[in-house]
Amino acid sequence: MRIRQWLRDAWDNVFMPTEEKRGDDDSVKDLLRLKIKPGRSKFVYFMLLLCFTALGVRIGWLQLGFNTEFLQKQGAMRFQRTIEVPAMRGQIYDRNGTLLATSVTAKALWIIPQDVKITTSQLKEIAKTLDVPVSELRKKFNSKRTFVYLKRQVPIETAEKVLDMKIPGLHSTREFLRSYPDGEAAAQIVGLTGLDGNGIEGIELAAEKRLAGKPGSRRVMKDRLGRIVEDAWLKEPMNGENITLTIDSRLQNLAYEALGRQVENLKAKGGSIVIADPKTGDILALANYPSFDPNNRGKISRTGVRNRAIVDTYEPGSTMKPFSVAAGLEEKKVTPNTLFQIGRSMSFGRHSIGDSHYSKELTVSGIIQQSSNIGTSKVALLMTPQVMWSYYDKLGFGHSPQIGFPGAVAGRLRPAKNWRPIEQATMSYGHGVTVSLLQQVRAYTVFARDGDMIELSIYKDRAYREPQRVYSAKTAGQMRDMLAKVVEKGGTGFRARVEGYTAAGKTGTAYKVEGGQYVRKYVAGFAGYAPAHNPQIVVGIMIDEPMIGKHFGSTAAAPLFSEMVSKTLRLMAVNPDRPEDFMVTKNDKKPAKAKAQPAKTHALKESNRARARAPSRTNLKSAKEDHVIKGKTNG
User: Fold this and answer.
1) Positive or negative, the Cα torsion across 320, 375, 422, 630?
2) Where is this region: Disordered (predicted)?
C-alpha cells in the first residue's frame, strides 16, 4: 500500500498542475498564470534529447557503413531482379550420331497489362504474326493480372517482328524450342516436351532427369527508368546430358514409310513394326502408324501419340505356336517327326476347335508349316498346364519389358491353376493370352539365338543383362528348321520369302475381343528373323483390323516382313545367303549362278542387276491360315 501511494504522489508531482483546474469560462490570462513544476520540464527535455541521440546514432550507423544490409535490401526490392535462366536440354541421337531431338533458341513473349499501350492496328498485326486469334489477344491485354504470356516458344525471327513494334509493357524472355528432325517417323519413340520444356512423352519423359539439366540464375539491376545497368551471373546453368539410342534413323524412316503404305492399302486401323538385333538386343527400328508430328503441336491426338508396339496388347494368334511346340520338344514329349492325326475338328464338350483347311495327319514340323490349331493343341495337351505356363513365363509373357520406356505393358497370362483343357489348347495357338509386339519380338530371339532370350533395349549405353535360358540349343535348332519351312513354298508364310536371303518365321491371325466377346475384327501378324540359320535381325509386325479378305497374317503382314527384311539386310551390308535367286539366262542357255555381291549400304538404292529376274512364284488362291471355331471360350 505504501509503494502504491508513493507512485501516485510522484505522478501528481510531475504531471498535475499546482492549482486546481479552472472551468471553461476562465480567461486565457488565468491559464497562463498556471505554474508547472520543474520536474515535468526536465522530463520532457530529457525525452527529446534521448530521441535525437538515438536518431543520430542510427544515421551514423547507416551512413558510416557499419550495417548496409537494410538499405541494400530495400534497393534490391525496387531495382534488382533475379531471373532464372533455363539450361539447354540434352540432345537425342540415333546409333550413328544423327540428331533425333535438339533444342533451338526461342523467346517467350509476355506483358504487364497495366503498362501496355497498344492500338487496334498493332493488335491485329501481332495476332497475324503470332497466329493467335485477335479475341484471345485482346482478352490477355485486358487482364487484371500483373504478368501474362502472349505466346511461348516463339521462333526468334517471329519474336523480333513483334518486339520491333516497341509496344510499352511488352517484354520477352529467352527459352528453348524443341525440334525433331525425323518428324512423324520417330515421334512415338523420341516423344516430345511441354511448354515448360519438360518431357511429357517417349524418351523425353523416360530420360527427363538426364536430359533436363539444372537451370542457372542472373542478377539484373535496372534504373528508375527500367533500363538495365548491370547484368551478372549468379549461377551458370548446367546443360542436360546427351543420349544415344539404338535406333537407326535410316531404317526407322524406311520402316515407317513401308508400314504406312501397308496400313493404307489394307484400310486398316493401324499397325506396328519392331526390328531388333538378336545378338545385342538393340532395337534398330520401332515404328507405329498412324503417328503424329511433334513439330506441330496444334494437331497432336492421343491415339497418334500412343506407342502401340509397347503399350498396346492383343491376342497374337498363331505366332504363339512355335513356343508351345518348342516346349513339347524340350520336354521330350515329341520330335519334329512325331505324327499326329488331325481331322476336321477337336472337341472339348460342347466346344470345338478346327483348322481352315483339312489335314488327315501331320508331323510336328508339318503342324508348324501348315499352322494347324488342332495339331498344336495336341502337342500342348501332352504337358501339364504348369509346365506350359513355366515356358511362357520364362519368355517374359505376363511381365513388363525392362526397356526403360514409359507405359511398357505386361500383357495377360493367367495362372496355370485356372486353365481348363480347352483354355490350354487355345492358349497354345495364341487365344486367351495377350502380349505386346515388343514382347513377341523379344520372345522370338530365343530361336534367333541358341535357346536363350536377350532383353531388348532402346538405349545404347545400357548396362549388360544376362540372357534368359528358355530352351536348349538343340531345341532352338530344330525350331529354326521348322520355321524356315513356313516361309518356303507350301508354308503359310510363303509371302514372307526374301529374294536373296533365307528367312524364317510364323504367321498369325486372331480375333479381337470387344466387351468380353470375340468379334469379327482381326489382328494380323508375322514374327520371324533372317537369315534363317545365322540371324542378324528379328522382325515383328502387327496390323490392326485389316480389311476382311486380306486379314490373314499371310496376306497382311508377311509381304511387309519380306520388304523390310530385304531393305534392312542390304542396309546392314549382309551378304545374300541364297545366291540362286540371282540366276540369269543368256541366249536361252542354261542358267548359271551369278557371283554373290555385297549388298548396297543404303536400302533405297536397289542393286543394278543386269538381265537378272526373280524366280516365278505360285499364286495361291488363299493362304492356309489359322482359324478358330467359335465356342463359349474362344468365340
Assistant:
1) positive
2) 582-635
CA distance 472 to 222: 75
- Segment 535-588, tens digit of pLDDT: 999 999 999 999 988 899 999 999 999 999 999 999 999 999 887 776 655 554
Question: Which one-letter DSSP state was computed for residue 461?
Answer: T
Torsion 279-528-442-458 (CA) sign: positive
SS3 category, 220: strand
Per this entry, what is the length of the chain? 635
For residue 30, pLDDT over 70 is answered with: no
- Active-site choice (103, 249, 318, 356): 318
Among candidate residues 531, 500, 527, the one with its CA nearest the CA of residue 596: 500
Residue 548 buriedness (CB in 10 A; 0-12 / 13-18 / 19+): exposed
Active site residue 318: yes
d(CA 41, CA 39): 6
Q: Closest Cα partner for 291 from 193, 184, 436?
A: 184
| Predicted pLDDT at 588 | 46
Ordered DSSP codes for 263-308: HHHTT-SEEEEEEE-TTT-BEEEEEEES---TT-GGG--HHHHS-H
Beta-strand relationship, 192-193 and 216-222? unpaired
Contacts (Cβ under 8 Å, ≥6 apart) of 469: 394, 451, 452
Residue 212: helix, strand or coil by DSSP? helix
Distance CA 627, CA 542 (A): 17
Instruction: Enumerate domains of the chain plus CATH numbers.
Output: 2-17+26-62 (no CATH), 82-244 (3.90.1310.10), 251-582 (3.40.710.10)
List C-alpha distances in Å: 211 to 101, 107, 244, 604, 612: 11, 20, 11, 33, 50
Share of the chain above pLDDT 90, in %: 53
Instruction: Identify the H or E element spanning 31.
Output: helix 28-32
What cell was used for 569?
539386310
pTM value is: 0.77
What letter represents residue 506's amino acid? K
Residue 146's identity, in one-letter code, is: T
